[in-house]
Amino acid sequence: MPRDQEVLLFAFLAFLALICCLPFVACQCNKNPVIFNFGDSNSDTGGYSAALGFNFGYPDGRAFFHQPTGRLCDGRLVIDFLCESLKTNYLTPYLDSLEPNFTNGVNFAISGSATFPRYVPFSLDVQAIYLVGGKNFWVHNTGPLGCLPEKLGTRKTNATDFDKYGCIKSMNDGAKAFNAELDTLCQELRPQMKNATIVYVDMYSIKYDLIANSGAYGFKNPLMACCGYGGAPYNYNPDIKCRDRGYEVCEQELAYISWDGVHYTETANAMIASKILSTNYSPTPSWVQLLL
């Protein structure tokens, strides 16, 4: 691993993530970043498609790439916006055999897979990366799972288990309990990993804010999938999901937070990336400190 380059380790680990920088402004980084991303469909830029030899198909990719790219989104993912802010190319899936370019890192994320075995503690995964040269770790906590149309449209929930924004309280409480443990783990790892930096990012608050204040952000359907079947209130049917025969897709995805009931739209991803990189949702050290 080159020692003259900043090593940025990104991990979207079934709702965990490792990320960087200020969006839509000139990056202050004075080194060439090398990014390694581990995760699932939330950050898969084509790994699953490369493995199977086909893309998911329309309507994925219609908002930006104008064709399917293996991303489960109408356009760019959060990881794509972060790469743009660093002025580096989008990450190439490690299974891509068509002229792969790994000069700026590689994306190990694959849809539908757990990045690491469940019986291996997350702390050991981080320490293993640290031992081979990992220096900067950005850890994103999990989002409000109880606000996903996929959960809302498939679970039988008592009326008392919905919060004032229409999300399932018990699921969100579980997410918050997980996040509290993850935050504690990050605090415990910092003194053990000398000369390394671990930044914990409150992804839950970022995503919940989009839903709670959806009108202020220009969203009209915060709990409804753009691509799916069944119409309001969630447009999610487990028997006819987005990309399945008979699916329906909205005309204006700009009004939607959810793309397919599980993944976010490009518009929502752009806002999430902006908030991540604002440093307002991370304790010190800030993103800027890590990039200098």
TrEMBL record:
It comes from the Eukaryota. Gene3D superfamilies: SGNH hydrolase. Residues 1-27 form the signal peptide. One of its GO terms (molecular function) is hydrolase activity, acting on ester bonds. Keywords: Glycoprotein, Signal. PANTHER family: GDSL ESTERASE_LIPASE LIP-4-LIKE ISOFORM X1, ZINC FINGER FYVE DOMAIN CONTAINING PROTEIN. Belongs to the 'GDSL' lipolytic enzyme family. This is GDSL esterase/lipase LIP-4. It comes from Sesamum radiatum. The lineage of its organism: Eukaryota, Viridiplantae, Streptophyta, Embryophyta, Tracheophyta.
